[in-house]
Design goal:
Blueprint lengths: L41 E7 L4 H4 L2 H18 L5 E5 L4 H7 L4 E5 L7 H4 L2 E4 L5 E7 L2 H4 L9 H9 L3 E7 L5 E3 L4 E5 L14 H12 L3 E5 L16 E5 L2 E6 L8 H15 L3 E6 L19 E3 L2 E5 L4 H14 L4 E5 L2 H6 L8 E4 L2
Length: about 350
């Protein structure tokens, strides 16, 4: 199914009781940690191998998703290590698609969206690392997540890193950060009863700022109930440095389309708040014609030495997007990939990846 169709550290929260991830040992407090920008050096990239036929409904399309995930992993593995998460029972099939540079871990999964169910790693600037645990709940209980809901804690346990509870339910794809103290998000993905019932926006903001070690947050309304994510920000806008970023907008907005209206509104709110935005136009010509197809150039992933981004078959806008990424990331290769099955599912490369920053 297309996705558009559909605080203090406690002893119990420490994965395996390990303290080796904390510089100098001793207790951790939420004030010690911050989530660095995506472009800082990574130890590796996490990805998830999709296996749940009950989620996909069609075996052929599940296989297309698996092959697409493998192709992304293989491309990233040319620049940094990749760990693919999958149940041991699924390793044989995954291995046939993956290069020898990709490592498999026995952590069971259902779906591929590692940005949302994977580990959010914070650092302390002295080599220490922890996992800030925003509990994934299937985008507000819209999809099965018995396995995916435990991915972050299982990765923390495997790494021997403490798990810091944030008190939030939600997804990392629903918040964007510049690594210099600024966050932005759509209210629709957070201030909603299927994630954080009874919590006011101010409470959610305080918890997000604490989790990311940030100081300031810019909210835009977003769109509720029109896609499974309730309009994640990372398919629209990405920070590329302190107070600057890229945003993906339609050349000819349809003001009957709530996503177009919301995208323009988000742009205006961010610009008024002082964020310098470079606009990338959405493709006008696409290989996939479905109206529900997500064609987001903004949903790219920054790894060591490269940017992995989608191309959609529109020569003009594909080239313009690549040029914009080269301007913003001049010291990296820009690798444009055909990941149409992810767009048909309502996501992209960023949604399918999650970085582990170097300690």
């Amino acid at each position: 199914m297309n996705r558009r169709q559909m605080m203090a550290l406690t002893g119990a929260g420490v994965a395996g009781g390990m303290a080796s991830g904390i510089a100098g040992g001793g207790a951790a407090t939420t004030a010690d940690w911050y989530v660095p920008a995506e472009e800082v050096p990574h130890e590796l990239t996490f990805m998830q191998f999709p296996v749940a036929l009950s989620v996909y409904g069609d075996r052929w399309f599940l296989e297309q998703a698996q092959q697409t995930i493998a192709s992304i992993a293989n491309a990233i593995a040319e620049f940094e290590p990749v760990v693919m998460l999958a149940s041991a029972a699924d390793h044989g099939r995954a291995r046939r698609m993956l290069s020898d540079k990709v490592t498999l871990w026995d952590i069971p999964t259902e779906d591929l969206w590692c940005r949302d169910s994977g580990p959010i790693c914070a650092v302390d600037g002295q080599g220490g690392r922890v996992i800030q645990h925003i509990q994934f709940n299937g985008w507000g209980r819209k999809q099965r997540h018995k396995r995916d809901g435990r991915v972050a804690e299982r990765v923390a346990d495997r790494l021997g890193l403490p798990l810091l509870p944030t008190g939030l339910k939600g997804e990392a794809g629903g918040v964007e950060q510049d690594g210099h103290g600024l966050l932005t998000a759509h209210e629709s993905s957070w201030v909603i009863d299927n994630r954080n019932p009874g919590m006011r926006r101010e409470e959610i903001e305080a918890a997000l700022l604490a989790a990311y070690g940030a100081e300031r947050m810019i909210w835009a309304p977003g769109v509720k109930g029109q896609d499974i994510t309730d309009y994640h920000i990372d398919s629209l806008m990405r920070f590329t440095g302190a107070g600057r970023g890229l945003i993906n907008l339609p050349e000819a907005p349809d003001f009957e389309d709530p996503f177009h209206v919301s995208a323009i509104e988000t742009h205006d709110i961010l610009a008024a708040a002082g964020v310098a935005l470079d606009v990338i136009s959405e493709p006008n010509v696409r290989r996939v014609k479905s109206l529900d197809f997500v064609a987001s150039y903004a949903n790219y992933y920054v790894c060591n030495g490269a940017v992995m981004a989608a191309e959609f078959g529109d020569r003009a806008t594909d080239a313009a997007a690549e040029a914009a990424l080269r301007r913003h990331y001049p010291d990296r290769d820009v690798v444009m990939l055909n990941v149409d099955p992810l767009g048909e599912l309502g996501g992209g490369i960023h949604c399918a990846t999650h970085e582990l920053p170097a300690g």
